[in-house]
Amino acid sequence: MKVLIVEDEVKTAEYLHKGLTEQGCAVDVANDGIDGQHLALQHDYDVIVLDVMLPGRDGFSVLRALREVKQTPVLMLTARDRVEDRIKGLHDGADDYLVKPFSFLELLARLQALTRRGRTQEPTQIRLSNLQIDLIARKAWRGATRIDLTAKEFSLLAVLARRQGEILSKTAIAELVWDMNFDSNTNVVEVAIKRLRAKIDAAFTPKLLHTIRPGCRPRRQPCR
Ligand code: CA
């Protein structure tokens, strides 16, 4: 899940960034409405957490600009006792709201519900040969063997499995699984793919993860 947090309170933004990253999400943070709107329009997020009171441009204004072009699910953060803010947010196209202070687990559950709602045609399970992935429980099996994956490994597996048959560049994988501050010069993607392959492919057949080197044609001309 790729999440944008637009929140000017540094502590809240850090807390959300940390919590969501630990859940395997790719998280970008904007600390004002102008940056937030720019990121929301430039990138494709699965869900956006948008504070109402922001410097530069308030959350309602960001939401209205976003809704002119995109239907990315938006959860708004509103202050306690501001019923009119919640009504206005929902009226302007917010999909849900949460009153501060909120519990992280509630926020997470709401974000998951919003992204599921946005993907009604998407399956909750993916089967690829004898690999089975439960996207809701975030668990995977090869045959009867449960594969123990970290949150990031699961996100990587889900991204690849959803796009089975496609060739994904390292940059595309980094963009989908990590966040915008990801340094594509590092070998993090290679290392993560290697770890994932060791877990889902090494002891099993058929092999499902294939690396295509630049300059090589897939399938017909395998790399040597
Ligand atoms: Ca604020």
Brief characterization of the structure:
The protein is of the alpha/beta class and 224 residues long. The protein has helices spanning 10-22, 33-42, 59-67, 83-91, 104-118, 151-162, 170-177, 188-200, and strands spanning 2-6, 26-30, 47-51, 74-78, 96-99, 125-128, 131-134, 139-142, 145-147. The two termini are 35 Å apart.
How would you characterize this protein structure?
It is a single chain. With 224 residues, the chain is an alpha/beta fold. The protein folds into 2 domains: 2-121, Rossmann fold; 125-200, Arc Repressor Mutant, subunit A (Orthogonal Bundle), CATH 1.10.10. 40% of the residues lie in helices and 17% in strands. It is built from 8 helices and 9 strands. It has helices at 10-22, 33-42, 59-67, 83-91, 104-118, 151-162, 170-177, 188-200, and strands at 2-6, 26-30, 47-51, 74-78, 96-99, 125-128, 131-134, 139-142, 145-147. The strands form 2 sheets. Strands 2-1-3-4-5 form a 5-stranded parallel beta sheet, with helices on both faces. A hairpin with a 4-residue loop joins strand 7 (131-134) and strand 8. The two termini are 35 Å apart. Calcium ion (CA) is lined by residues 8-9, 51, 53-54.
Helical stretch count? Answer: 8
**Can you write the helix and strand succession as a string?**
EHEHEHEHEHEEEEHHH
The secondary structure category is alpha/beta
At the first level of CATH, the class of the largest domain is Alpha Beta
SSE layout and pairing:
Layout: E1 2-6, H1 10-22, E2 26-30, H2 33-42, E3 47-51, H3 59-67, E4 74-78, H4 83-91, E5 96-99, H5 104-118, E6 125-128, E7 131-134, E8 139-142, E9 145-147, H6 151-162, H7 170-177, H8 188-200
Parallel strand pairs: 1-2, 1-3, 3-4, 4-5
Antiparallel strand pairs: 6-7, 7-8, 8-9
The structure holds calcium ion.
The site of calcium ion (CA) has 5 residues, from loops.
